[in-house]
Amino acid sequence: MQGKDYIGFSVFVIFMLALPHWISNDYYLGVLVFTAFNCMACVGLCLLMGYAGQISLGHGAFVAIGAYAAGILTTHLGWSPWLAMGAGVLAAVFIALVIGVPSLRLKGHYLAMATLGFASIVHIVSVAAIDITNGPAGIIDIPRIKLFGFALDSDIRYYYFVWIIFAVGLFFAINLVKSRVGRGLRAIHGSEDAASAVGVNITRYKIQIFILSAVYAAVSGSLYAYYVNYIDPGPFDIMYSVLLVTMVAVGGLHSLWGAVAGGILLSLLPELLSMAADTFAGVGIAYKPDYDTIVYGGILLFIMLFMPEGLFGGISTLGSLVFKAIARMAGRRYPSG
Amino acid sequence: MKRKVVLLIVTGLFIFTSIAAYAAEKSYKVGCIYAITGKASWLGEPEMNTVKMIAEKINAAGGINGHKLELYIEDSQGQNTRAVNAAKKLIKKDKVCAIIGPSRSGTSLACVPIVSAAKVPMISCAAAESIITPVSERKWIFKTAQNDSDAVRRIYENMNERGIKKVGLITGTTGFGNAGRKQLKSMAGKYGLEIVADETYTPADTDMTAQLVNIRNAGAQAIVNWSIVPAQSIVPKNMAQLKMNIQLYQSHGFGNIKYVKAAGKAADGLIFPGGRLLAVDTVAEDNPQKKVLTAYKAEYEARFKEPSSTFGGHAYDAINIIVKALKMAGDNPAAIRDAIEKIRFVGISGSFKFSPTDHSGLDKSSFDMLTVKNGKFVVLK
Amino acid sequence: MGIQRGSIYALVAIGFNMIYNSTGIINFAQGEFVVLGGLMMVTLTMNLSLSMPFAFLLSVLFVTIVGFLMERLTINPVREPTVLRLIIITIAVSILLKGLAMCIWGKGSLYMRQFTQTGPIEFFGATIMPQTLWIIGILAAVVSAYILFFNFTLTGKCMRACSINRDSARLCGINDRLMVMLSFALSAGIGAVAGIIITPIIQMDYGRGALLGLKGFGAAVLGGLGNSGGAVVAGLLIGILEAMSGGYISSHYMDAIALIVMLFVLFVRPGGIFGKSEEIRLKEF
């Protein structure tokens, strides 16, 4: 397992870094930059859902907090983008603590509803607190971020920047999952009572993971703000929180790779569907992006009913079955090796 | 018989060569970003219909200076991320020379950095003035929707005429409502008006009685209800319920006959600044826009079997301005931009006069004061 | 003033409780039932011009069937239900229903006339819209039917037995799976009633489900999850609180009030205002 994950990680990183050689069009790069934002939030959420067994329907709110911290502090107060991003992370940590401590003491549905309520409140505040967030009109002219004095002002530069940050985040998450913390978390997911009986401090683990997942989301939000240079409350509504959960669940709850796969798949899906619409139109089916919602719901429902391990889990189960079958056949043919 | 065949072949050849010649001219590519689906599709649908209709007409008449007009239409679904992707796709992949849209203020603002960096002119169909101001930073951006501040001017002038001094505000908490509230408050002083109450409501509100009672207690002589969501129809109803007889002003966001229906009898007699398209039949004959309005309304409604809307009008103006610029300057983006700054055009939203310092081109004459009479919009006499 | 809205929250909360009692599931699609009820009613009355009572019954029946199908197709077949999985399934259903509603009824908000066309009624110096009376009356009727059903019919008693202890109920020969199905269908029906009576006031559109559901859940929590009497009081309370905050504090934050109350109760008194705070931690999902 150990080696397999690192090999997978290396292959993935090399592939993502090499990708711009084949697709240099800014449009595709832009789509992939947005994909990185989603994947980042998904990895955090996967730690919470897949490894701690808790559901948060409010991660869009942490993304919003990161984005607004970046937008407000750089434009109103003239902070440097890096400092503003740090402040966004701190704000997310603090808020996650305030929300997490009481609601993680409760079970199951309560965290889901509490986080959903929290996400709605954040959205309402971002619309209503006009003096701070500029309300629905949004914050314009957010500066670009610089790396050692090097302006990240083109799509290709930003592409490398976000995917490298994402790789660091993913690397950290992979290591975390394999550490003592990760084993403790899996124990919680299996049975909270058993875990606590063998001395795992459940509540503390759950809160730590909740905070960590909020950090991933906040970083993703700040990076979004510096890329688009404009934010308004629109992208961070509760549907976005639900979409993040969908991405993780569709990809596979119990594996970080599943979350990444789900994040990539569902980020590309609207673009793919809009391209497919032309093909559909060619054969006489009028596909409208209005059907996207149905497609999302349908995919999620299908996965949850028939492949609860997610696409990634389902495929890897299938893969290992095939592998075993081949091995068995090979074994039969050459019985003594 | 023989002669007929020869004639047929000759005409066939003639048509073929002319088509070939026509196709040889490179076509002018213009991109459109509209919220065709999603929550704001009531904006994007009439806009898309309109540009398609106009483009077909232009191409049927031989194109622009012999070049075919080719539209690349993208759906933003009203979302910033999708709009940004669409703008990039149009500029980098389809290589358009100008962009029309997006439909919403938010999506337009999200696209501003991209088109500015790529140096491609964009004519937004949204209203917010921050899209085009300050012009020094919005060199490549224009817009065709009327200005909120001009709507406020018309309302306040009407109040001055009637000797109203104390005004109560009730605005929606959406982007449209907020922008209006800001303008209403900042401009009241210039017209010698006092804002005695400043209330708001959310799009999901069901009852504005509490807010209206506050306005009544503050002694307002008129109310301005500024919103674009259906909930605004509740205000006139609640006023009737409370037996408040002071004049109700609505914003141009009331310009949707559905809202009149929802308000029922209570809507009769309210006043609002609106695009003339809403009350075409009652627009004065000598108004320069009358001809354009009547023609557009008739053409749109015959073709799409649905009422024309002022939003489609914004798209009508935008595409016609682009076509004019293409005629003047060809399809070089920078040349188009410079050309737009010189354009004079009588359109649906008003008579445009663009200049290097004014990228909206409209003033308060773009609105008429309208009222509701027997469930219909008419020009206020 | 806030009674109209409060009644809706109360009805949504009763719907939540019904499913929660029989299965321990919080149904995230509850808000969509409300939307479907309202939209169906608009179609039947405004487009097909059926009479109000007939359209009312048909709409409720339609949504009841949706609830029934939801249970049969998505809840019943799940063999190894975990909380996480069931939550995500109800979320998936809500996305699906929302998408379908959008494609069928469009994105605009649909207008419907009030049940009766009389003008405002004078009542001790205050003016009341007749629709408000309808809402209060129908809420009262639903609550009484609810009480009668659960206390005086065999099916109702069986459902109550299941909610107290499903295993013992099964031992006594009660078909617990059937009761789960029934609870989904009934809860959908009640949601539809809420949607139907509020539509003449707010104009229904496909996207309202999430917030209505969330606020209804706030009422359910405030009243103590599973306690339907508490839900009615809590729903009305939240409605009035909202209306007052809209008028006297700031309508910008009005929508947040119900949610803040919900979070506060969850954190401080998870048993609700009428429950004991210890009770909730004992309840295993």
Describe this structure in words.
The complex is a heterotrimer of chains A (337), B (381) and C (285). With 337 residues, chain A is an all-alpha fold. Chain A has a domain at 2-236. Helix content of chain A is 77%, strand content 1%. Chain A has helices at residues 2-22, 26-51, 59-75, 81-105, 109-128, 130-133, 155-178, 180-190, 192-197, 202-228, 238-251, 256-282, 292-306, 310-333, and strands at residues 146-147, 150-151. In chain A, a hairpin with a 2-residue loop joins strand 1 (146-147) and strand 2. In chain A, helix 2 (26-51) packs antiparallel against helix 10 (202-228). The longest helix of chain A is centred in the middle third of the chain and has 27 residues, at 202-228. In chain A, 52% of the residues are buried. The model of chain A has no long low-confidence stretch (mean pLDDT 86). Chain B folds into two domains: 27-146 and 293-362, Rossmann fold, CATH 3.40.50.2300; 148-274, Rossmann fold (3-Layer(aba) Sandwich), CATH 3.40.50.2300. Chain B is α/β, with parallel strands linked by helices and 381 residues long. Chain B has helices at 2-24, 41-60, 80-93, 105-118, 148-161, 175-187, 209-217, 234-241, 257-263, 290-304, 310-329, 333-340, and strands spanning 28-34, 69-75, 98-100, 122-124, 141-143, 166-172, 194-201, 222-226, 247-250, 271-274, 344-346, 351-353, 368-373, 376-379. In chain B, the strands form four sheets. Chain B has a five-stranded parallel β-sheet with strand order 2-1-3-4-5, with helices on both faces. In chain B, helix 5 (148-161) crosses helix 6. With 285 residues, chain C is mostly helical. Chain C has a domain at 3-112 and 129-209. Chain C has helices at 3-23, 30-47, 52-75, 83-105, 130-152, 154-164, 166-171, 176-202, 209-222, 228-248, 254-268, 279-282, and strands at residues 121-123, 126-128. A two-stranded antiparallel sheet of chain C has the order 1-2. Chains A and C meet through helix 4, helix 5, helix 11 and helix 13 of A and helix 4, helix 9 and helix 11 of C.
What integer is the average pLDDT of chain C? 85
The N- and C-terminal alpha carbons of chain C lie at a distance of 37 Å
The N- and C-terminal alpha carbons of chain B lie at a distance of: 67 Å
Globular, elongated, flat, extended or rod-shaped: what is the shape of chain C?
globular
Radius of gyration of chain C: 19 Å
CATH class category label of the largest domain in chain B: Alpha Beta
- Portion in beta strands of chain B: 15-25%
Q: What is the CATH architecture annotation of the largest domain in chain B?
A: 3-Layer(aba) Sandwich
Mean pLDDT of chain B: 89
Amount of beta strand of chain C? under 5%
Give the uncertain stretches of chain B in residue-range form. none
What's the helix-strand series of chain C? Answer: HHHHEEHHHHHHHH
Task: Write down how many β-strands of chain C occur, each being a DSSP E stretch of 2 or more residues.
Answer: 2
Structural class of chain C: mainly alpha
